[in-house]
Amino acid sequence: MSKTTTAAQGQSLTPNFTAVDYSKIDPSLKGQGLLSAGRSIVAKEGAGALLTGFGPTAVGYLLQGGAKFAGYEAAKKYLVDACGSYDEAVKHRTAIYLGGAAIAEFFADILLTPAEATRIRLVSDPKILRTEGLSGLYAGFIPILCKQIPYAIGQFTVNERATEAIYNSMSKETRENLSEPAQFAITLTSGIIAGFAAAILSQINKGHGPEGSMVHRLVVLAKQAGPKGLFAGLGPRMIMTAGLVSTQFIMYGWIKRALGAPPGIEIHKETAK
Questions:
Q1: Structural domain range at position 184
Q2: What is the pLDDT of residues 34-76, one digit of tens each?
Q3: What is the DSSP string of 193-262?
Q4: Integer Cα distance of 41 and 4 in angstroms
Q5: pLDDT at position 10, please?
Q6: Is 37 buried (19+), middle (13-18) or exposed (0-12) by CB count in 10 A?
Q7: 220 assigned to some structural domain
Q8: Does 135 score more than 60 pLDDT?
Q9: Rounded mean pLDDT of 133-139?
Q10: Does residue 25 form part of some domain?
């Protein structure tokens, strides 16, 4: 993904993140939805409060996004080479997608975590930055991994599989003579499907609910709200995520072409038609 796109993603999400952070530290906001909490914050502290931490958020997602997309291509190539042959890589392509996404997100989150910590501390207590040092900036590394890795796995693996399914629904002649609008439509459709998957896979880890492991959170949330409550707000989240993810893949493709970068290695299994 382009760094421009990821910076824009961070900018657009800053008010959402800030509202969530205020909800955690302000008892009067507990239990309020995102929109109602945002309105309460604006009424008390002005609209500027929703942009608290804007700088760290934009920089963090700029670095994380650039590292994630470039890292995914590098990790995928490494895993393909490790298979020993192209045919073996195609046979194990799902494992390669999963592993490549997890590896890329792990290293990308090393860049994102300090920015997230800075944003949260700007909301709660800016003085903590001077007292905790580097270890304080990485205190949330594991929770971020638990949230971001399922998201990345859904984003990349489902995008790859969706793209493969779309191409395999066409004849070989059609695949070889696709127009630019058709290629754009395929990228958009695959990105939207991947966005839906990313939203679902990261739903439980989006920052709400009890502390602890994902399994513990699932159990506690299921007891409190029932199975239906685990997916509260999933619809709007899926729509937002589908838009973000599809835009990321489109922009990434455009910028690679503009820079003359070689295409990434493809291990889709082609079905003859």
A1: 140-261
A2: 455 445 544 565 554 444 445 556 666 678 888 899 999 999 9
A3: HHHHHHHHHTSTTSS-S-SS-HHHHHHHHHHHHHHHHTTTTHHHHHHHHHHHHHHHHHHHHHHHHHHTPP
A4: 29
A5: 46
A6: buried
A7: yes
A8: yes
A9: 72
A10: no
The Cα–Cα gap between 235 and 245 comes to 15
What are the Cα distances from residue 73, in Å, to 63, 90, 99, 103, 263? 16, 15, 11, 11, 10
Q: For the chain, what is the domain count?
A: 1
Q: What is the mean pLDDT of residues 218-226?
A: 63
Query: What are the structure tokens assigned to 2, written together?
Result: 């382009």
Distance CA 35, CA 233 (A): 12
Distance CA 86, CA 72 (A): 18
Distance CA 43, CA 55 (A): 23
- Whether 205 is covered by a domain: the verdict is yes
Residue matched to tokens 């205020």: 22
> Counting beta carbons within 10 angstroms of the beta carbon of residue 25, is it exposed (0 to 12), middle (13 to 18) or buried (19 or more)?
exposed
